Amino acid sequence: MTPEEILQALYDETLTGNAPRVLELTNEGLDLDMEPQTLLFDALIPSLEEVGARFERGDFFVPEMLIAGRAMAGAMERLRPLLAETGVETVGKFLMGTVKGDVHDIGKNLVNIMLEGAGFEVIDLGVQVAPEKFIEAIDLHQPDIVGFSAFLTTTMPMFKANMNALEKAGMRNDVIVMVGGAPVTQEYADAVGADGYAADASQTVKRAKALLDAKRSKVPA
Fold it and tell me: B12-binding domain spans which residues (predicted)?
């Protein structure tokens, strides 16, 4: 296959979520000395953006997003160390975790894949993340954005506990805070003082980029 054919096939197979073929094509491209960033920016990311667009139109649903995301994630495992070597700049750093008391992670994991596909460096703290663990991780990783995820109405109050912990640690102005999860609404996000909310993985990527652009435009060069 020519490099052009590989890029087209990589786009198509990611769209349909054919993980084994996506990995094969990634390796074929690398064997042809194609740049890892070419595979990422000219095939994988555009494909995942199309997945998001189809989801928003109602042509794709969560299962289709998940399998496309998993196909992309397999390719990313192969490309990540190579991209690091070439010094490809990431869009920004996103620290993510499901709040204390909550063990749900399917939505969070899908968001992580979509964010990574859009060029973010994602640090996933997993589930049951206590406020102090978020604080430690923010101090260690210095992310641009921190995301709190909750699936249960009973764990949503942890958003406020996390915000209070950020205030107490003097970090509130250092990071953009986004919240999300099945029961979460824009009104609730506003009530706890979050900077952003998104209803699904596709919207999270758009919102995160917009918030980051807005913050950077205020910072003097």
Answer: 91-221
